[in-house]
Amino acid sequence: MANELNIALAKSGLTVTAQRYQAGAAVGSAISCPETGSSGFYSGNMTGTAGTYQVAFLSASANVGSGSIVWSGTAEVPASTFNPASDTVATVTTLTNAPTVPTAAAIATQVRSELSVELGRVDAAVSSRLSSASYTAPTAAPTAAQNASAVRTELTTELGRLDVATSSRLASSAYTAAPTTAQIATAVEGSLLNEADGQAVLNAIVGAIGNTNLSEVSLVAAVRADLERVGGKIDSIPTTAAPTAAANATAVWATASKTITGGTVDTLTNSPSVPSAASIASATRTELTTELGRLDAAVSTRLASASYTAPSTAPTAAANASAVRTELATELARVDAAVSTRLASSAYTAPANSDVAAIKVKTDALNTDRLANVATTAIVGNLIAQANS
Fold first, then answer.
1. Are 63 and 95 in contact, with CB atoms under 8 Å apart?
2. Domain limits, the chain
3. N or C: the chain end with fewer CB closer than 10 Å?
4. Residue-wise pLDDT tens for the chain (389 aa)?
5. How far is CA 70 from CA 6, 29, 97, in A?
């Protein structure tokens, strides 16, 4: 016979031994019980002389199970053939502390629980991710000089308007407002019609006409003729009023070119304040805070195109299932028998320890009687030998 010592444990890969006991004392050395495959089932070959033994299964000095066995010296004695009146051995074929084998569903649930972190990362269909055909490797990040050049190109129109130094424009302290039309008329009238000029004009008229009494009509005609001789027809002189200072300013402002020639403008009234390069850079950073905030790692730490490997075609469901089976080959190999073939809890019978103790009492008594009989036979033999001598 072989493999009389058996125990099923929930864990594989253990080193299990069986130690025999009688009357609470260890008998012989521990018996090795190697694992069958990777199933968590451990078996060993019973050895020793005939008798009833209590067996403790040990792993790393820990008791992982126990039981009893009736041993004939060469084979296990079935309980059905044991006669307490004549036999000195009995058998108990069921182990205590038999483990409960979890169901496949329970195992699957536990596997899902164990892999909850990893499975939680599969939060979107793989097909929704970027395919290798759609991937474009990034180019090198532009240099500071290239960025500056691009900004200049973008601001070409605005920068083109800064075509001279601001200090070359008219200073506000040097600016004199243009006179109004009323001021111009008053000045002209005062210049032409002061007393000295008026008298000179009258003297010239009198001299020209020979101090002759003239009517108002003839005098006006003579003055008009004299004026038209130099300045042309008085009727052709425009009678439209001169534009106001505000109208002049509006017309100047409406001119598209606004080019000032023939002088230097040092300071302009209401001229805008031009920010410094540092303040422009700071304002640009503030404006781009959201976008710059996304540059939270150096570009060199991201995947380089040379390091990118395009993903292969996603495996089929069958290929995935096959790969899972291969990955779990060790564990699946331990499911080497149908669960229904294992001992049900309802079929388990605890060992009759009280009966075993009673058997031990009887066997101890039988041994005492046999020793007594042996002693008696020896005495009788001596007496017969003496009688015959």
1. no
2. 1-101+318-351, 181-231, 352-389
3. C
4. 688 999 999 899 999 999 999 999 999 999 999 999 888 999 999 999 999 999 999 998 899 999 999 999 999 987 656 554 444 444 444 445 555 667 778 788 887 888 888 888 888 887 888 877 777 877 777 888 888 888 889 988 888 887 878 777 777 777 677 778 777 767 766 665 565 666 666 677 666 666 666 666 777 777 777 777 766 666 666 666 778 878 887 877 777 666 655 555 555 555 556 677 887 778 878 887 887 777 777 767 766 766 667 666 667 788 778 887 888 888 888 888 887 787 777 777 777 788 777 777 776 665 555 545 544 455 555 656 666 65
5. 14, 18, 19
